[in-house]
């Protein structure tokens, strides 16, 4: 096997999101401890960054073949390995496609309606647009992993 495939962009994005969540949460705790008041933006940003962290982490896991899947059927029926891999890809493409489609529609509607976030009054589409974009990135990484598995460049077992 060659060097482990990488998803540098997603790893950097997930790391950055986790660091920012940690820093603003720590700052909020310290400020609340000393002043009995808290930053208004921490929950709003933390939820947004958690979505980024989740999708970027899932994308990186897909690229490295570390995402959860059920390999029992592949082990039980080795002759069906290729169709099962394609079936897994199709199922994941369907789910990610729905996220891209409905997430994109939602982001567009938030933009068109000039919706604002309840906490800070920022445009909601700033938060929502990341959902379809990162789902597209996951779709790309899923396809890379699937092709690598089909070509024998990537082990079936993580």
From TrEMBL:
<dbReference type="GO" id="GO:0005886">
    <property type="term" value="C:plasma membrane"/>
</dbReference>
<keyword id="KW-1133">Transmembrane helix</keyword>
<dbReference type="GO" id="GO:0015740">
    <property type="term" value="P:C4-dicarboxylate transport"/>
</dbReference>
<feature type="transmembrane region" description="Helical">
    <location>
        <begin position="45"/>
        <end position="63"/>
    </location>
</feature>
<feature type="domain" description="Tripartite ATP-independent periplasmic transporters DctQ component">
    <location>
        <begin position="22"/>
        <end position="151"/>
    </location>
</feature>
<keyword id="KW-0813">Transport</keyword>
<keyword id="KW-0812">Transmembrane</keyword>
<feature type="transmembrane region" description="Helical">
    <location>
        <begin position="84"/>
        <end position="104"/>
    </location>
</feature>
<protein>
    <recommendedName>
        <fullName>TRAP transporter small permease protein</fullName>
    </recommendedName>
</protein>
<keyword id="KW-1003">Cell membrane</keyword>
<feature type="transmembrane region" description="Helical">
    <location>
        <begin position="12"/>
        <end position="33"/>
    </location>
</feature>
<comment type="subunit">
    <text>The complex comprises the extracytoplasmic solute receptor protein and the two transmembrane proteins.</text>
</comment>
<comment type="function">
    <text>Part of the tripartite ATP-independent periplasmic (TRAP) transport system.</text>
</comment>
<keyword id="KW-0472">Membrane</keyword>
<dbReference type="InterPro" id="IPR007387">
    <property type="entry name" value="TRAP_DctQ"/>
</dbReference>
<keyword id="KW-0997">Cell inner membrane</keyword>
<feature type="transmembrane region" description="Helical">
    <location>
        <begin position="124"/>
        <end position="143"/>
    </location>
</feature>
<dbReference type="Pfam" id="PF04290">
    <property type="entry name" value="DctQ"/>
</dbReference>
<dbReference type="GO" id="GO:0022857">
    <property type="term" value="F:transmembrane transporter activity"/>
</dbReference>
<comment type="similarity">
    <text>Belongs to the TRAP transporter small permease family.</text>
</comment>
<dbReference type="InterPro" id="IPR055348">
    <property type="entry name" value="DctQ"/>
</dbReference>
């Amino acid at each position: 096997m060659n060097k482990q495939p990488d998803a540098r962009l997603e790893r950097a994005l997930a790391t950055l999101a986790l660091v920012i969540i940690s820093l603003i949460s720590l700052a909020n705790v310290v400020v609340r401890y000393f002043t009995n008041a808290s930053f208004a933006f921490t929950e709003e940003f933390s939820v947004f960054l958690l979505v980024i962290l989740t999708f970027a982490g899932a994308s990186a896991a897909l690229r490295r073949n570390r995402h959860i899947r059920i390999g029992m059927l592949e082990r039980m029926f080795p002759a069906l390995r290729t169709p099962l891999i394609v079936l897994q890809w199709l199922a994941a493409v369907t789910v990610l496609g729905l996220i891209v489609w409905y997430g994109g529609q939602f982001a567009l509607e938030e933009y068109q309606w000039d919706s604002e976030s309840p906490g800070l009054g920022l445009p909601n589409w700033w938060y929502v647009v990341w959902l379809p974009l990162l789902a597209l990135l996951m779709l790309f990484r899923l396809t890379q992993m699937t092709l690598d598995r089909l070509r024998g460049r990537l082990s079936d077992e993580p």
